Every structure is written in structure tokens, then in C-alpha cells.
Amino acid sequence: MHACVAPVLFTLCSVASAQTGVFAPLAQQCSPSLPNVLCIQKYASVIPYHFFRNISNGTSAPTFGSTSVPNDTSFALVDKADFLVFDRDRGLEILGTNPTYDFVFKVSEAVHEAPVYVPSQNKLYLSQLAPPPGYLPQLVVDLNQNPPTLSEFLSDPPVYAPNGGTFSNGLIYWGASGGNRSIGGLEQRPGLRTLDPSTNKTATILNNYFGYYFSTVDDLFVHPRTGDIWFTDPTYSWFNKLTDTAPQLEPATYRFSPRTGAVRLVDDSLAQPNGIALAPNNRTVYISDTGAESAPFSPYLPAQASSFNATGRRTVYAFDLSSDFTYLTNKRAFYLAQDGAPDGLKVARNGYVLTGAGKGVDVLSATGDLLLRVQTNYTVQNFAWAGGELGFSEFWIMGQGGISRVRWALRGQEVV
Fold first, then answer.
1. What are 55-113's pLDDT values in tens digits?
2. Does this model's pTM top 0.85?
3. What is the spatial distance between Cα 66 and Cα 262, in angstroms, rounded to a whole number?
4. β-bridge pairing 37-40 and 83-85
5. Could you give the CA distance from residue 313 to residue 270 in angstroms, rounded to a whole number?
6. I want to staple 289 with a disulfide (CB 3.0 to 4.6 A). Which of 226, 270, 371, 403 is the partner?
């Protein structure tokens, strides 16, 4: 435990010193040149008593910064910082010399998802889900403008409720989560769609599993070696009234071959499989389980709104990918979200894993250590790197009520 030398910290340090193992202050500015960056000492692994963090079984989870720590007043700074650094060396390396966080667009309280950056256009496509049910237009951020602009667009034919997305070989691949007998005059069911951003034309490439409707089709990636599409299928569309049919399949993760049309179940061990991402080595797959956000579901029950239970699953798991890139092995727990449940999931160019959890984005080492957190004033659903000419160092975050931009040294994987 380091010495307490500043007179203004005398009372704070006296209280902390009376409790073994306490480092005080728990939170402090990392550097005078980085006023928006706060370093958390030793991960706040020993907090002076009496501290308490509320557990909510309602619709949201209290943040780490909302923890009551009356015997360390520095902790009140936590919720006010843009960036929280838990590992000083690696965290500051991620941020670089001049990190910035900007709240760029205020949007509705609807879920905002499926961000996909198209390098040839320098535009970021994303979706807006219900409310209201049946909403069809999607959104596009034009990064050619200064400042960037946000506008609606409608594909041909429209796609209802894209929930996850990626870019591969000139096409946007969407996981469409909406299902209805008549949306915009068309029947749509959860499945996989493509959008050609040069023509605005969409195509359905998967909409069923041997006649059963998928439940949501939440997130996905395209394997660069095989072209197979890996996707998660939780039951959130039923809870969120994005589909008119109760779940017919268990929550699961699948692999789809566009070449043959074959769909294979690859994992059904997670309560609510959500985000999915592939490491740059093409050998490690990460899948988040957001079972902490759930509700009872059955083909014979009416839809119920989901709620958050902190004792439920809110964990990212890592899997090894087989040598022929067809199945998963060696499942292991990778990270338990410290705020909310891990929704969006991406892997940086250097192998760091990022997940949207509650009101922020957590940056994790390749071994699951929390290095850094980006804090937002809205619940984050997803995020994407953009700015090909900038080396994919612009990081766009979106969720319920906001779209933000981070500029830092952490680069995303290139998209082609």
C-alpha cells in the first residue's frame, strides 16, 4: 500500500489505512494531459467498507460507478469519466496520446444495431429496431461530411429489423431479426439477408431451419477462408414484439453454407447466445451469453417482456475452431460482464476483444482481462470501426438514445 502524502487525503487515507489491503484513492486521473481518462487502482480489488452495489431485477443494471463507497470520495469520479483504465500500461497504449469521445447524434430510445462500415463509400450503415413495431427504414452515417450526417434509407426490398451485420466481398450481410406476415406488403421471417450498397438491392439467403422459423438471428460473421456464415439465434424478437410467432427452436448458434444451403447447429449450450466474433487468427470464436436478460418463452405462451437479473448468464465464452473450420471445441468462460450483459462483440486487429455491456464498451485482452472501459450515457447495443484512410482507428458506438465516436490508437480489422 502506497503512502498517503497529500493533506487533503488525510481523512480518506486514515479510514482506508485502517482496513488492510485498501489502495487509496481507488480512482485518480491517469495524467494531467488526459482529463477525461480515469485510472482505477488495482482494479478496485479491495474497496473500503461499507460499500454496496445495488442489484436490479428490473429493466437495467446499476453501473460500476454507482457503487456506494462513502469512505473513498474519489470513487464519485468514476461515472463522470469518458474512459476508465484498469490496466494502466495496456489501457493507455490503447488510448494513444489524444483519445477523444464525442456524443455525435441523439437518436430515439429504440434499439440501434447492426453497424456495418462500407469502405468504398466511407459510410456506416446501421439499423433502428422497434419501437415502433414494423419500422422499416434503416440509418446511414455519411463520414464524407464534416461533421458527419445521419439520414434514413430504405433498401429494395426492405429488410425488417437487421440485428447484426458484417461486410464481406462487397456485400453487407445482415442477420434479420423481424418476422411478420405483412411488413411493407411483404412477409418476412428471421434469417440472413445481403445488401449490395452500390445498388441498394437486397436478397434473402436463409429464412428457415427445415421449415421452422428462426427466433431472432442476432449477430454473425463470415469466415474469410470458407465463406460460411456463423450466426446466433436467441429469442429476443419474441420478447421485443418484433415477430408475430413464438419461438419454435431452442436458443442456439449455427453455421450456414451459402454455397450448399446447409445449416448446421454448432452450439446449444448458452441460455441466450448473442454477440459472435472471430479472432484475426481465424481460429478462435467468441460468443456472448446474455441469459441475464430474458423471460419465459414457449410456443404455447404469450409474449412477455424480458427483464434483467444480475445472477443470470452475462458471460463471453471462447471456443476453438476446428482445423477444417466447421465446428467448435474447447469452450471456456472468457469474461463476466461487470456492467449489464455483453451484447455487441468485435475483435480488434491486435486480438483484443470488445463487448458492449450496459452503458459502455469493455476492452479485453486476449486472455479476458478487462483493460479499459469506454463509458456512455446510454445503453450500448453495438459498435464498429470505420475510417479506412485513418487505419480503422475511428470507433462508432450506438444504442438506445445515442450514437458516439471514439478516436484512439486501437485499430479494427480491415474489411474488404
1. 875 556 689 999 999 999 999 999 999 999 999 999 999 999 999 999 999 999 999 99
2. yes
3. 48
4. parallel
5. 8
6. 270
Q: How far apart are CA 122 and CA 409, in angstroms?
A: 19
Please tell me the distance from the alpha carbon of residue 90 to that of residue 43, in angstroms, as a whole number.
Answer: 14
CA distance 313 to 22: 30
Q: Residue 137 in contact with residue 125, Cβ under 8 Å?
A: no
Measured between alpha carbons, how far is 379 from 402 in angstroms, rounded to an integer? Answer: 9
Instruction: Read off the amino acid at residue 336.
Output: L
pLDDT in tens, 141-198: 999 999 999 999 999 999 999 999 999 999 999 999 999 988 878 899 999 999 999 9
| Contact assessment for residue 364 and residue 347, using Cβ atoms and an 8 Å cutoff | no
Alpha-carbon distances, residue 321 vs 286, 328, 329, 350 (angstroms): 10, 5, 6, 19
* Of the candidates 346, 379, 372, 356, the residue with the CA atom closest to the CA atom of residue 167: 346
- Closest to 217 (Cα-Cα) out of 183, 254, 167: 254
Query: Which long-range contacts does 178-183 make (Cβ < 8 Å, 24+ apart)?
Result: 178/129, 178/237, 178/242, 178/243, 179/213, 179/237, 179/242, 179/243, 179/244, 179/245, 180/134, 180/243, 180/244, 181/244, 183/134, 183/136, 183/158
Buried b or exposed e, range 101-116, using 16+ CB within 10 angstroms: beebbebeebbbbbbb
Contact 71, 49 (CB under 8 A): yes
